[in-house]
Amino acid sequence: MITPLHVCRACDGLITDPDDAVAVAYEEAASGPGWTIWAHRDHVDDVDLIDPVLLRIMTRIWAAHRPAM
Ligand SMILES: [Zn+2]
């Protein structure tokens, strides 16, 4: 069985050890299926994920659930 290699989003390096690959996000493609974004286990915190759609949804949820003060 061949394990597909992943590229780390943080450092653009190949993740050669499957145990070192962490799926950090799933990106939708304009056409066809999207793809998973991977990062080295040590680089997960370095991945910049700015998803405007997700941010807008989360902002709406946070605003709706803000406790009354
Ligand atoms: Zn990396």
Would you kindly provide a written description of the structure presented here, covering whatever features stand out?
This protein is an alpha+beta fold and 69 residues long. The protein has one domain (6-64). Helices cover 19% and strands 25% of the residues. The chain contains one helix and four strands; from the N terminus they run E-E-E-E-H. The protein has one helix at residues 52-64, and strands spanning 6-7, 14-15, 21-27, 35-40. The strands form two sheets. It has a two-stranded antiparallel sheet. It has a two-stranded antiparallel ribbon with strand order 3-4. The chain is elongated and about 55 Å long. The structure holds zinc ion. Residues 8, 10-11, 13, 39-40, 43 line the site of zinc ion.
In percent, how helical is the residue content? 10-25%
- SSE order in H/E notation? EEEEH
Based on helices, strands and strand pairing, what is the structural class? alpha+beta
Span from first to last CA? Answer: 57 Å
Number of domains: 1
Uncertain spans, ≥5 residues at pLDDT below 50?
A: none
Strand segment tally: 4
In summary, what is this structure?
The chain is an alpha+beta fold.
Key structural traits:
about 70 residues; alpha+beta; two-stranded antiparallel sheet; two-stranded antiparallel ribbon; elongated; binds zinc ion
